[in-house]
Amino acid sequence: MFQGRQGGPSTVPPDDSQTHKEILHQPAVWRAVSREIAAMAADARQWVRAGRFEEMWFCGAGTSAFIGESLSVYLNERQSAVRYIPVPTTELVAYPQRLLRRGTRRLVVSFGRSGDSPESVATLALLERADAAGLHITCNAHGALARSEGARQRAIVLPDETHDAGFAMTSSYSTMLLYALAVFDDVPIDALEGRLNALADAASGLIAAVAPLAADLAPPQRVAFLGGGELRGAAHECALKVLELTAGQVASFWESPLGFRHGPKSLVNDGTQVIALLSSDEDARRYDADVVDELRSQYAPEQVLTVGTVRADADLAFNEVPRGWNIPLYVLPAQLLAVAWSQKLGLNVDNPFPDGNLSRVVQGVRLYPPPAPKVRLFGGMDVGGSKIETCLFDEQFRPLQRRRVDTACSSYEELLECIVGEVRWLESQARAPVDLGIGLPGLVDYHSGRSLTSNLPATGRPLREDLMARLGRTVAIANDCKCFALSEANGGAGEDAETVLGLIIGTGVGGGVVHRGRLVLGHNDLPGELGHLGIPGRFVREWNLPLLACGCGRVGCYETLVSGPGLVRLASRHGAPECSPAQIAERARAGDAAMSGAMREWVTLVAELIYTAQCTIDMDCVVLGGGLSRIPGITAMLAEAFQGQRMAGREVKFTAARFGDASGTRGAAMLLIQS
Ligand SMILES: [Zn+2]
Fold it and tell me: Per-residue DSSP letters for 251-281?
């Protein structure tokens, strides 16, 4: 062994520091928590699943941030639509705009030993400001993280023995990491206990292997920890442990094995110890091994130590534990070496900074109020053949200003001018930038903004391009039924559903599909365009239904018989005098046989139409809108008929729209962020 610069005695009195005890105690802690971790994980997994998050942010400061650094690499390797992103709270607090940006279902997972650091407290305030969900993993039942409240906040408090009393985080780091793995890794719940016990066994063996080395090895002048993939975060933590516990007297660094060659290797001198964390992924480990061989050939071989599995033939070897779960084992030798070096340097291991320049829980961070949120306003416009409704919304899509004007549309040019005029009104009300969306009747190609069929003089015209050219800004355009579905699925009657079919039955029949809050656009913006499916032959034959020409150019579409005019046609075939859909429904309720016959056919056809949608998109919620949805009792009637006509399966919720006609402007306002 080379001599560290301190020289110093190679043996020191037995270490009775709290920090040392906490490091040695880790296997026992993991065995103890192995019994309760399954219940915790089952509960937390269910809560996380229900949130349908698209992004998981792993947040913390210092050691707590390195947990996320490791976990995100490991978890992102799995086939999953969810993205795991490490975001240190030390960045988040200073640059909060990213969190305050809306439009993504995001869970902020924060780690904190005390849960009381200034950054933890500031993060909680930001979560509230951003209305974001938070899962807080902490070791202190009395800290701010553990006490966080609110429907979207959840805390997991580790057993008290993980709440390290020493200056450096050791068992708190490893156990918080394991709890997060139990929640986010897809290990079967009933395998968790065995997994933790295997880890504890491996750790006990490793502690015994490191002990003689820790006793012998004098503190080096410099130490570099190398780790790739999920071990990058582990190397980061190893370096911090040495730096903290030796009060900076051993200068410590960290890098990935391949990254080390790109400059950082220049810190290696005769007094440098390199500790390489060998990946348990065999393919990646070939690169680690090459760097180790290179360093050993260029410097004294004993200047390079390796940590890894028995199979990797590492100097400090541990028994195999599945990847991800073995991260604490890579950090354990550095924890023990850092304590030994601290002691050999004559420091107080539990408090290497007696002058208080650094403290166990960070102090002295002055928190500033986050920047005033940029006022973000949304504008929605519902353009119909006779009226244009324009509405300004706040960030929660609550209406601020609304107005209706007649649609001036004797020509395409006049229509454009009319819409531009309403946009100018909206901007004058907002006095700030507005995200703008427009809903139109008929088919609209969302991608090109080209209007395909409509009762406006815009057919075939590139309406969106023309408007953007005049306004000098981005505008989203979609069919008004899509706007309806989008609005009802976000904060409306379909808020809690996974997949929402928004179905409008009025003068026409149309709809939209929203999955996890986002509009499904498909290849031609057709999802939900149900009115132009054909009525099944068995109903045509059984009831001798007429096959009528539809406005879309086809024959026998549902729209011809289930729209408002369609219901009137059904009633007239039963010999009923011509009256409105509302009157037909009312007379049917009063016992009129002809009207009842028409209503029965109508309900059966609409239920069949919804059944077809279910076989296609398998929605869990149907939100009804349009004039016919206001017929008293219609939602329950359709739900019952649907139940009788469908295949067996899980319940589908039927509900009337929450915002009704106002969903036209509200959904249009959401187009830019939710499509
Ligand atoms: Zn049609």
Answer: EEEEE-HHHHTTTGGGG--TTEEEEEE--SS
- The rounded Å distance from CA 561 to ligand 1 centre is 11
Q: Cα dist. 454→119, 285, 508, 553, 647 in Å?
A: 54, 62, 12, 13, 36
Structure tokens of 318? Answer: 């541990």
- Rounded Cα distance, 477 and 467, in Å: 10
Centre of ligand 1 from the C-alpha of residue 277, in Å: 65
What is the Cα–Cα distance from 470 to 422, expressed in whole angstroms? 13
Distance 554 CA to ligand 1 centre (A): 5
Question: CB within 8 A of 553, min separation 6: which ones?
Answer: none
Q: How buried is residue 423: exposed, middle or buried, by Cβ count under 10 Å (0-12/13-18/19+)?
A: buried
- Integer Cα distance of 623 and 629 in angstroms: 9
Average pLDDT per consecutive 10 residues, the chain (675 residues; last block may be shorter): 41 75 96 94 95 93 97 93 94 86 85 93 88 94 90 93 91 97 96 97 97 95 98 98 96 97 95 97 97 96 96 96 97 97 94 82 81 80 92 92 91 93 92 87 75 76 90 90 96 94 94 93 87 95 94 92 95 87 93 93 97 94 95 95 89 94 93 82
What does the block give as tokens for 533?
């499916």
CB atoms within 10 A of CB 589: 14
608 forms bridges with which residues in the sheet?
Answer: none
Which pLDDT score is estimated for 441?
86
Give the Cα separation of 462 and 438 in Å (integer): 14
What is the Cα–Cα distance from 486 to 522, expressed in whole angstroms? 15
Distance 533 CA to ligand 1 centre (A): 7
Count of positions (residues) in the chain? 675
CA distances from 312 to 72, 275, 318, 498 (A): 24, 15, 9, 45
- Integer Cα distance of 620 and 265 in angstroms: 57
How far, in Å, from the CA of 609 to the mean position of ligand 1? 13
d(CA 547, CA 540): 8
Contact (CB, 8 A) for 307 and 278: yes
For residue 664, the tally of other CB atoms under 10 A from its CB is 27
CB contact at 8 A, 568 and 510? no
In the sheet that holds 476-479, the strands lie side by side as 399-406, 387-393, 377-383, 434-440, 476-479
Q: What is d(CA 195, CA 325) in angstroms, rounded to the nearest whole number?
A: 8
Domains of the chain: 18-344 (3.40.50.10490), 376-492 (3.30.420.40), 495-657 (3.30.420.40)
Nearest alpha-carbon partner for 185 in 368, 287, 37, 8 = 37
C-alpha torsion 494→496→498→501, nearest 10: -10
Distance from the CA of 566 to the center of ligand 1, in angstroms?
A: 12
Q: What are phi and psi of 233, to 5 degrees?
A: -65, -35
Phi, psi of 15 (to 5 degrees): -85, 120
Could you please report the per-residue DSSP string of 563-576? SHHHHHHHHHHTTP
CA of 508 from ligand 1 middle (Å) equals: 10
Q: Where are the alpha helices (DSSP H) in 431-518?
A: 463-471, 480-489
Structure tokens at 670: 């959401």
How many angstroms separate the alpha carbon of residue 549 from the centre of ligand 1? 8
End-to-end CA, the chain: 63
Strands of 298-427, DSSP E: 304-309, 316-318, 377-383, 387-393, 399-406
Rounded CA-CA distance 492/623 in Å is: 9
Contact by Cβ (8 Å): 400, 393: yes
Q: Name the DSSP letter for residue 240.
A: H
3-state secondary structure 494-524: CCCCCEEEEEEECCCEEEEEEECCEECCCCC
Spatial separation of the C-alpha atoms in residues 343 and 271, rounded to whole Å: 19
